[in-house]
UniProtKB/TrEMBL annotation:
Molecular function, one GO term: SNAP receptor activity
Occurrences of domain Longin (ranges): 6-121
Protein's name according to its UniProt entry: Vesicle-trafficking protein SEC22b
PANTHER family: VESICLE-TRAFFICKING PROTEIN SEC22B
Subcellular location as annotated: Endoplasmic reticulum membrane; Endoplasmic reticulum-Golgi intermediate compartment membrane; Golgi apparatus, cis-Golgi network membrane; Golgi apparatus, trans-Golgi network membrane
Length: 218
């Protein structure tokens, strides 16, 4: 389920539009306002080279972020809401937002200059709450959105408490992925060498025993 949506400009983190579910409240007592502030913090840590798609965990929910045409689209969802559906929802918002406002985006000078876009956001939230509509939307996904398995997933504390930019977090994730891949390669190599060593020792023992037997027999 989509709980909250915020749209902001990447260049300066200015919020352009938003839609908040007033009933958001978790077991710790956090309200929709706190999650809205977290979304604003994410916007302030964007850069021109931030990853185009990022998921940020904020228990018990998760933010999904899509950057398109220098605009960031953020949605807060329940963790069991399919990630593909979340990015399909953001993609639909991005297409309509650019179609409606286009050149006006960079001229906006005050927060929530396009707050009336909430009407379209509410419409899409209702559509994606319908499982049948979600399946239809999935059929319209662009190729580059079909594989969401490699999207960077981080934690909101890494973004807010440590003041990390999404660019730096993406670099760290890429480095970890590279190290993991190298580790797998090294593990395969070591396993192969171990197997060859075992074979060599076995052959050596057999040869040695054959020599000893030959000496005693003859």
């Amino acid at each position: 389920m989509v709980l909250m949506t915020m749209i902001g400009r990447v260049a300066d983190g200015l919020p352009l539009a938003a839609s908040v579910h007033n009933d958001i409240r978790d077991d710790s007592g956090r309200s929709g306002t706190e999650y809205q502030n977290q979304a604003k913090s994410i916007l302030r840590r964007l850069a021109s080279n931030s990853p185009s798609k990022t998921s940020i965990e904020t228990d018990p929910y998760i933010f999904h972020c899509l950057i398109d045409h220098d605009v960031c689209y953020i949605t807060l969802c329940e963790k069991n809401f399919p990630r593909k559906n979340a990015y399909a929802y953001l993609e639909d918002l991005a297409q309509e937002f650019i179609a409606q406002y286009g050149q006006k985006i960079q001229l906006a000078a005050r927060p929530y200059s396009f707050i009336e876009f909430d009407n379209y956001i509410q419409k899409m939230k209702k559509q994606y709450a319908d499982s049948r509509t979600s399946r239809e939307a999935m059929g319209r996904l662009r190729t580059d959105l079909r594989d969401v398995q490699n999207i960077m997933v981080t934690n909101i504390q890494d973004v807010i408490a440590r003041g990390e930019t999404l660019e730096n977090l993406d670099k760290k994730a890429s480095n970890l992925a590279s190290l993991s891949q190298q580790y797998r390669k090294d593990a395969v190599y070591l396993n192969r060498m171990s197997s060859l060593t075992k074979v060599g020792l076995t052959v050596g023992v057999i040869v040695l025993l054959s020599i000893i037997a030959y000496v005693f027999i003859f």
